[in-house]
Each structure stands twice: as C-alpha cells, then as structure tokens.
Amino acid sequence: MAFGIKRAEMNEWKRKVSQGEIAYLTHYWLDPRFPNMKTVTKVGCSDLNKLAAWCRENGLNPRYIHARAEYPHFDLLGPKQKEILKREKLYDQLERFHL
Length: 99
Prior knowledge:
Protein name: YneQ
Structural class: alpha+beta
Number of helices: 4
Order of helices and strands: EHEEHEHH
Largest sheet: 4 strands, antiparallel
Helix content: 25-40%
Strand content: 15-25%
C-alpha cells in the first residue's frame, strides 16, 4: 500500500516513465514481506533496455524489474535506496521521507 504522495507527483512520474525517462518516486509503503521497510523508491522507465542498463550500472539485478505493468519500474529499498537518492541529488525525497 502506497501513501504520502500527491496525485500530481504520481502523474508527473507516470508522464516521465511513459516518455522513456528514468524517473524516481519515493513514497511510504507497507508490505508484510518487508516488515522493516517503511519507504520504497520506484525507479521507472518505459524503455526496458534503458531501465535494465540503469540497474546494471547501479549494481542491481534487472531480473527484478516489474515489467508486467503499464509503468515498468524497479523497487529500491534500504541502504541502496538512500545511496542512489543521494547520488541523484534527490534531497527533497530524502528529507521528506526521513531517509
């Protein structure tokens, strides 16, 4: 279950993903499979080759791309989430979600 984001933020992320851009969207998240995780960053891109390359460049396995949806994405969790958000200078997401 996702929460803590506005519809306009989600729509902007969807627009960028649809246009083949690498787009980041962090939100609060609860999933019983990951009881210690409270946030997730969805890294999306409709160009699956570009998204797979992004995964490899960041030491992530592209096998875990969620490609079944209209908006393909990779879920970033834990320390890697914080590391990548810092490197991408997405400080607003880091601060807002207390990462």
